[in-house]
Write a structure and sequence with these properties.
- The complex is a heterodimer of chains A (about 190) and B (about 240).
- Chain A has about 190 residues and is mainly α.
- Chain A is built from eight helices and no strands.
- The longest helix of chain A has 28 residues.
- The relative contact order of chain A is 0.09.
- Chain B is built from 13 helices and no strands.
- In chain B, helix 7 packs antiparallel against helix 8, helix 8 packs antiparallel against helix 9 and helix 10 packs antiparallel against helix 11.
- Chain B is elongated, with a radius of gyration of 30 Å.
- Classes of the chains: A mainly alpha (about 190), B mainly alpha (about 240).
Chain lengths: ~190, ~240
């Protein structure tokens, strides 16, 4: 009897691709799930730009959770993204600035949110703040090495410098980042 | 706890551990070191978080690029349709012929000034027509055929409804089907009562420009439009100069 192949492998592949920052998997996630979110946001007084914002936040949370290994087993990325984006948009709609908006009923609204409130958004905000302290030169090198996962020789070739220079720049940028983090942290700690 | 900065060999050893680039033996040895050295473990956690921050920055850049691509497609669906059309024609080796036969000045003026109507805000509730609102969502998504089909059903019940007629015409324009839009826009543009009359006049004007109906375009009083008067005058000036 032949084995049936459910759609899980495709979802698992996308999550695995997301974890290793694979651009093809990221594009596939975007293409497969953005329009569902956009339709929900457009149907609830939002714009395409609003949909784009909440979708990007949802992908970021999915990425952090996948990297931390804190996604529930068998998580469907599409359902996860829709759930997060929907809740984010409903928060906007219910905020004081948008009280006059009304919400269209969608059966997916009845789904209980499976996203635990364990401070993931605070962690993301902290990571963003850390990244913001980097200058463009450091971003260029560190982004290619850590996010795009290129080797030093490739980055050196792309930027027209020696491999050893890239290695030094990478180390100095990470130490600069470390020092900036200490300043941010100490500043926060010294606040009354 | 403010540790001393690691030197480069230490930094790279930690990096190799975080990025999972150590052999099994190296990894075990490193973990044994961390077990007896809390400062090293803390340094590893710090570096892991910094790397995560850099990766998150990269992720946000890629997502932003993908969103921009999507926005560009939304912002100019007519141009995307034309591009796809041109690509097919090119494949059929008819592109060049098509290009030379086009009224290029008129096409250029249309392309420069046409921007599809963004649609009405949708806030579905019991007091709104859900079929209309659902079609409006399709329209905003660029699903013009679907939007038109839904509005067509409503138009059968209310054939003179100016909102339905205006947005049905807008679907044709957004698809690049100017000729189908013109007969729907003409009565709206001439209406003395419809709230859509000024916008209908503007889009009818552009439709006439695109199809080369210059006399009709020049006869429309679009330069009186407070929002688009300057654009209209510039287009008319160029048409008159031909």
């Amino acid at each position: 009897m032949p084995e049936t192949r459910p759609s899980r492998p495709a979802a698992d592949d996308r999550l695995a691709g997301l974890v290793r920052n694979d651009p093809v998997s990221l594009r596939a996630l975007y293409t497969a799930h953005f329009r569902t979110v956009r339709r929900f946001v457009l149907a609830n007084s939002g714009t395409s730009s609003d949909a784009s914002d909440v979708f990007q936040e949802a992908v970021t949370i999915l990425w952090v959770r996948a990297r931390e290994g804190s996604l529930a087993a068998g998580t469907d990325p599409g359902a996860f993204l829709f759930s997060i984006a929907r809740n984010k948009w409903l928060d906007v709609v219910r905020s004081s600035d948008h009280r006059r908006m009304t919400i269209v009923h969608d059966q997916r609204l009845d789904m209980a949110s499976s996203e635990p409130d364990d401070g993931v958004e605070d962690r993301i905000a902290r990571l963003k703040a850390i990244y913001e302290t980097l200058d463009d030169k450091c971003r260029t090198v560190l982004d290619r090495f850590y996010f795009e996962r290129k080797d030093l020789a490739t980055i050196a070739r792309e930027l027209g410098v020696e491999e050893e220079s890239i290695r030094t720049i990478k180390y100095r940028c990470m130490m600069k980042l470390r020092a900036q983090r200490a300043i941010i942290r100490d500043g926060k700690e010294s606040r009354p | 706890m403010n540790h001393r900065m690691p030197d480069r060999p230490d930094f790279e050893a930690i990096e190799a551990y975080v990025l999972d680039r150590m052999s099994t033996e190296e990894r075990s040895a490193f973990e044994r070191r961390m077990a007896g050295d809390p400062a090293l473990r803390a340094e590893m956690e710090l570096e892991r978080e910094q790397i995560l921050a850099v990766e998150l920055g990269g992720l946000r850049r890629v997502l932003s690029d993908l969103a921009s691509e999507e926005m560009r497609r939304d912002a100019d669906p007519a141009r995307w349709s034309l591009l796809k059309y041109a690509a097919v024609l090119a494949l059929l080796l008819c592109g060049a012929l098509w290009w030379f036969l086009r009224p290029s000045v008129h096409e250029r003026l249309f392309a420069e000034h046409f921007m599809a109507d963004p649609g009405l805000p949708v806030a579905m509730s019991a007091t709104h027509d859900p079929v209309f609102a659902d079609a409006m969502v399709s329209y905003k998504e660029g699903n013009y055929v679907e939007a038109r089909a839904r509005w067509a059903r409503l138009l059968q019940k209310e054939p003179l409804n100016d909102t339905l007629r205006y947005f049905t015409a807008s679907t044709f324009l957004a698809e690049g089907d100017t000729k189908s839009a013109i007969p729907m826009l003409e009565p709206l543009a001439a209406s003395g009562t419809s709230a859509f009359a000024p916008k209908a006049r503007w889009y009818l004007f552009l439709a006439y420009v695109r199809t080369g109906a210059v006399d009709r375009a020049l006869a429309l009083p679009v330069e009186e439009d407070p929002l688009r008067g300057d654009q209209a005058r510039a287009i008319k000036h160029e048409l008159n100069a031909q």
